[in-house]
């Protein structure tokens, strides 16, 4: 049955509003990044010029390239370590019975309850103590405090939904532990790992407060802080064009990752569909 | 010769003993069914034979060799799981080939064995499909096929029909029975809580209850000479009538047992008089529930149609040769 016309119109208006509200800020950032000088301050909603000067300025300016690499390094290491630790922890938490398992799981989750700001000063002491101040490892360390609980939690739930009989069937088939992990577990866990890994990556990529606090020199900074600290020729000038160009540049990797993995993400979010 | 021997096998989880002193000898090529109510330890016993559970006491031998500490894959055993446990990310072919790959067979032989099993189970058409593209019955066949390819000495099934709908269950039961005939050297061990499956499939039935073996015997032995009141009630459908009180006391027993099919019903004469409460008409049979004066509720099975109706007065006569008497501990009293 076809819905009445006013319902279709209403539906598309609503979709339009949602899309607009989600995409407009980014669209405007792209628009601004392509403009130069005075053109910046004239309000326009359609591209007038295609001027890549801002991008050139950012990418040839020296440290920004290094800062992107810093972010890539931190986010990648966080994802790899989190997934490795979370998969092993999830296996223990979902498959091995031991005393205090439920309590441990709750404790893991409750770690992510604390606001960043509440742990900031304590964490600062810890990082100084370990001599990690102004090192990228300080960020790896501190981001894992927040990414691990949810990766562990999600992967544990996911693994619990994998029937244990599949694993037992593999044992009966004569597969070694390593073969079971490689040929049976990882292929089944892959969607969940992609999803949680991507969320961990995005978190590490966007994080601001720790990155601002634990790193002190320009060449060590990650992109969110770097962009916030971009300054113009004088105190009174905010170089919007450069800031927007940098913002667009740092968004692209995330967009690319999401597009590459999008089908896996969908199946990760509908986890449990693995059943027979 | 016995393929599978269990000697005083027991199993405890911590301090909880779930199986006690199990002694069994399964002959080569035999179809043995473990039957018992839910939670009685059937699956645990099967999984101990498979090697998925540790044996905490006693000894397991297969073909004369001690197996307690042998890895599952080295026991010459294949298992069909209740949920089928197919690998969801592999095709049917890959599912069936996985075990053979682990045994390091060459590609040509793997293909040959898988195709032979697929042909036997009529699943050749699905070899390239993933499990989720198959119906329940087809998945079941793939699970059986995966087990057959390994050419096991002993074939284990854990409630393989419980995920199928009623009609398919009967078909698959027949297929499993004919599979047993086509593999005459393979010992089959089949776990179920359904006594009909046990009666129809088994050469011999092992009745388990509360972690111990109640009785081992052919289906007809269990039906005709149950070794306990539990077995008498568990085997046979509809259930045996158990009567206490004066009827039992008259025979010097605590409990008087008579199967519904061993009572005759007549409108005017008989040993017992009662009133019909309810009738269940199945076409082939009619079950008549009668409240007998001074005896209690009795279920009677009549072949074919019956013209009795609720509230009719009827007379019942139990067949004296088919009466089972039990003492207060549920042990049979020789009649
Ligand atoms: N891992 C376990 N820990 C403790 N008790 C268990 C465990 N597995 C099974 N049991 C107990 O063992 C008994 C037998 O279980 P099971 O063999 O699965 O029964 P069945 O298959 O006959 O229904 C049950 O009472 C169950 O509670
Ligand atoms: Mg069971």
TrEMBL record, chain A:
GO terms for biological process: transmembrane transport. Keywords: Cell membrane, Membrane, Transmembrane, Transmembrane helix, Transport. It is a multi-pass membrane protein. InterPro entries: BP-dep_ABC_trans_perm, MetI-like, MetI-like_sf. One of its GO terms (cellular component) is plasma membrane. The keyword Transmembrane helix applies. It is found in: Cell membrane. The chain crosses the membrane at residues 9-30, 68-91, 103-124, 136-155, 184-205, 243-261. Its main location: membrane. Residues 68-261 form the ABC transmembrane type-1 domain. Belongs to the binding-protein-dependent transport system permease family. This is Trehalose transport system permease protein SugB. The lineage of its organism: Bacteria, Pseudomonadati, Pseudomonadota, Alphaproteobacteria, Rhodobacterales. The gene is sugB_1.
TrEMBL record, chain B:
Keywords: ATP-binding, Hydrolase, Nucleotide-binding, Transport. GO terms for molecular function: ABC-type maltose transporter activity; ATP binding; ATP hydrolysis activity. SUPFAM superfamilies: MOP-like, P-loop containing nucleoside triphosphate hydrolases. InterPro entries: AAA+_ATPase, ABC_transporter-like_ATP-bd, ABC_transporter-like_CS, ABC_transpr_MalK-like, ABC_transpr_MalK/UgpC-like, Mo/tungstate-bd_C_term_dom, NA-bd_OB-fold, P-loop_NTPase. It comes from the Bacteria. Residues 4-235 form the ABC transporter domain. Its EC number is 3.6.3.19. GO terms for cellular component: ATP-binding cassette (ABC) transporter complex, substrate-binding subunit-containing; maltose transport complex. The keyword Disulfide bond does not apply. Transmembrane segments: none annotated. It is an enzyme of class 3 (hydrolase). The keyword Thylakoid does not apply. It holds the Pfam family ABC_tran. Belongs to the ABC transporter superfamily. This is Maltose/maltodextrin import ATP-binding protein MalK. It comes from Roseinatronobacter ekhonensis. The gene is malK_1.
């Amino acid at each position: 049955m076809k819905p009445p016309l006013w319902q279709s119109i209403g539906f598309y208006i609503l979709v339009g509003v949602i899309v607009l509200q989600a995409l407009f800020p980014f669209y405007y950032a792209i628009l601004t990044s392509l403009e130069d000088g005075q053109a910046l301050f004239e309000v326009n909603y359609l591209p007038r010029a295609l001027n890549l000067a801002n991008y050139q300025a950012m990418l040839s300016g020296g440290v920004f390239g290094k800062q992107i690499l810093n972010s890539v390094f931190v986010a990648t290491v966080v994802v790899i370590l989190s997934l490795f630790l979370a998969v092993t922890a999830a296996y223990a938490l979902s498959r091995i019975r031991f005393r205090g398992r439920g309590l441990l799981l709750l404790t893991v989750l409750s770690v992510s309850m604390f606001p960043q700001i509440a742990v900031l000063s304590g964490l600062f002491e810890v990082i100084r103590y370990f001599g990690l101040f102004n090192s990228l490892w300080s960020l790896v360390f501190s981001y894992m405090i927040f990414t691990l609980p949810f990766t562990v939690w999600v992967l544990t739930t996911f693994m619990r939904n994998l029937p244990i009989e599949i694993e037992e069937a593999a044992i009966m088939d004569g597969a070694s532990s390593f073969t079971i992990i490689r040929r049976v577990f990882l292929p089944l866990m892959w969607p969940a790992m992609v999803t949680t890994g991507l969320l961990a990556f995005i978190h590490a990529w966007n994080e601001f407060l720790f990155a601002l606090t634990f790193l002190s020199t320009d060449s060590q900074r990650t992109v969110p802080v770097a962009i916030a600290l971009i300054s113009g020729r004088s105190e009174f000038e905010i170089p919007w064009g450069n800031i927007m160009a940098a913002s667009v540049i740092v968004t692209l990797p995330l967009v690319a990752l999401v597009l590459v993995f999008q089908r896996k993400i969908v199946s990760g979010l509908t986890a449990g569909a693995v059943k027979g | 010769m016995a393929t599978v021997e269990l000697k005083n096998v027991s199993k405890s989880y911590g301090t909880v003993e779930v199986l006690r002193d199990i002694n069994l000898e399964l002959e080569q090529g035999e179809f043995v069914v473990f039957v018992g109510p839910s939670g009685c330890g059937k699956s645990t016993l099967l999984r101990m034979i498979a090697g998925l559970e540790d044996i905490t006491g006693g000894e397991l031998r297969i073909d004369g060799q001690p197996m307690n500490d042998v890895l599952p894959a080295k026991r010459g055993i294949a298992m069909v799981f209740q949920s089928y446990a197919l690998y969801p990310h592999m095709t049917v072919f890959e599912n069936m080939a996985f075990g053979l790959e682990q045994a390091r067979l060459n590609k040509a032989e793997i293909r040959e064995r898988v195709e032979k099993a697929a042909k036997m189970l009529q699943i050749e058409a699905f070899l390239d499909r993933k499990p989720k593209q198959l119906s329940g019955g087809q998945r079941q066949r793939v699970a059986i096929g995966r087990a057959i390819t390994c050419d096991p000495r002993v074939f284990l099934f854990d409630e393989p029909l419980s995920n199928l709908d009623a009609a398919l269950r009967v078909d698959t039961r027949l297929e499993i029975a004919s599979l047993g005939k086509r593999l005459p050297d393979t010992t089959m061990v089949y776990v179920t809580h359904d006594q009909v499956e046990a009666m129809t499939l088994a050469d011999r039935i092992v009745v388990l209850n509360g972690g111990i073996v109640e009785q081992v015997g052919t289906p007809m032995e269990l039906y005709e000479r149950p070794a306990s009141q539990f077995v008498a009630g568990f085997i046979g459908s509809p259930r045996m009538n158990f009567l206490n009180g004066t009827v039992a006391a008259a025979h010097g027993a605590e409990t008087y047992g008579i199967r519904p099919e061993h009572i005759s019903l007549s409108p005017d004469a008989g040993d017992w008089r009662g009133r019909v409460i309810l009738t269940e008409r199945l076409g082939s049979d009619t079950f008549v529930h009668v409240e007998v004066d001074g005896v209690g509720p009795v279920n009677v099975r009549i072949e074919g149609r019956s013209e009795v109706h609720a509230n009719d007065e009827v007379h019942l006569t139990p067949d004296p040769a088919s009466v089972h008497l039990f003492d207060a501990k549920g042990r049979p009293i020789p009649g």
